[in-house]
Amino acid sequence: MKKSAIVVGAGIVGLATARALTNNGFNVTVLDKTQRAVGASIRNFGMVWPIGQPDGELYQLAKKSSQIWRDISNSVGMWYNQSGSLHVAYSSEEWIILNELFAQFEKEGRPITLLTPSQISIKYPLVKQNNLYGGLFSADEMIVDPRIAVANVSDFLESFSGVQFLWNHTVQEVGTGFVKSGNKLLKADKIVICSGQDIETLFPETFISLPIVKCKLQMIRMSAPNNKLIGTSVCGGLSLLHYTSFKSAPSLDLLRNKLICEIPDYIKYGIHVMVSQHEFGDLTVGDSHEYGYTFDPFDHHNVNELILNYLNSFMNASNWEISSTWNGVYPKMTDGSSWYFNEPIDDVYLLNGLGGAGMTLSFGVAEKLIDKII
How far, in Å, CA of 118 to CA of 113, rounded? Predict the structure, then answer.
């Protein structure tokens, strides 16, 4: 008889875990408290982003996740775009850092290229030319549309792998071999809790002891006239301060100190600006990073204005129109870890804290950790 497993949470971490379990012979049931996934997994750029991960295991996990995204997308006929990414430089400091990163990434064997302003103008004409020093292009990155991709992964797991989904099922209690949801008692050999920002709900004592914080981000969806294509995902200079893989650039502190002096509000709100494009031309722009445990539910207009002003410093976006704004919340480890995994009671596991890298790492991390679960 097959072993059984219950996964709590139908965001991308839960879905990746369900996939790994079913691929290892488990009958899997996924429970989620809402009618469909509506958390951080659908409130992001849809960027699968190996360039943000440092060389070694994390970069390889990101590459593995990218391949799984492509496999699932091809299986269900879901749109994705292996668009790559372009980091652009509009100051000498930014350009020096891109050259440092190019040398580093080239040694690591990554598919990267330095582009001149003229090359960028030909391939990506919506990137502004004024004061452009050049850009670093990476071919690794891909885009899915998170508003449909997460639902499509659920459908894939249900149709092709026999995973059962129980929506509108809030889990109130978990113990070895069981979960309680309302008046239902569901039993399984293994239980994995992938509850995102609700991490404190089922195991509050564990949550209190963790080096973890929550992050609220603000994002904007826009459209360009005639849905003109931008050609790749584009990142401004502020993004150089954001990703772990960039921290080894020797000149990074010089740029950080310069930006703290010149645009302190961007550092205060944790803003770095990038833009991705989806199947029908929609553009997702963001984002900010506010850390804490309880957040004001409202978007801050001044933060969105800062994001849009910076966007217009490197993209010809003055005629883009806003179609929606929103915020999302995810847990992030504060000790430098890329995720949290533990077994608080026998055969019950917690997997959380992937921060803003859920779309990038989840499939790979679930495959890495599956041996510790089964």
Answer: 14
Q: Is the pTM of this model over 0.85?
A: yes
What is the DSSP annotation of 186-231? EE-SEEEE--GGGHHHH-HHHHHHSSEEEEEEEEEEEE-GGG----
In a domain, 75, yes or no: no
Taken in order 259, 286, 43, 28, the sign of the CA dihedral is negative
Are the CB atoms for 296 and 317 separated by under 8 Å? no
150-167 pLDDT tens trace = 999 999 999 999 999 999
| Sequence-distant (≥ 6) Cβ neighbours of residue 238 within 8 angstroms | 259, 266, 271, 272, 273, 310
CA dihedral 154, 156, 160, 162 (to 10 degrees): 10
- Looking at the fold, whether 232 and 121 belong to one and the same domain comes out as yes
What burial letters (b/e) apply to 163-200, b meaning 16+ CB within 10 Å?
bebeeebebeebeebebebeeeebebebbbbbbbbbbb
* CATH number of the structural domain spanning residue 329: 3.30.9.10
Tens-digit pLDDT profile for residues 227-260: 899 999 999 999 999 999 999 999 999 999 999 9
pLDDT at 185: 96
Considering the domain architecture, whether residues 277 and 187 belong to the same structural domain is answered as: no
Q: pLDDT tens for residues 340-351?
A: 999 999 999 999
Same domain flag for 201 and 348: yes
Distance CA 91, CA 194 (A): 42
Q: Distance between CA 271 and CA 252 in Å, rounded?
A: 16
Same domain? For 286 and 227 the reply is yes
We report the CATH number of the domain holding residue 367 as: 3.50.50.60
Place of tokens 């003109």: 228
| DSSP state for residue 54 in the 8-state scheme | P
Element (H, E) at 343: strand 340-345
146-161 and 12-23 helices cross at what angle (nearest 10)?
Answer: 20
Which DSSP symbol is given to 239? G
Residue 77 lies in a domain: no
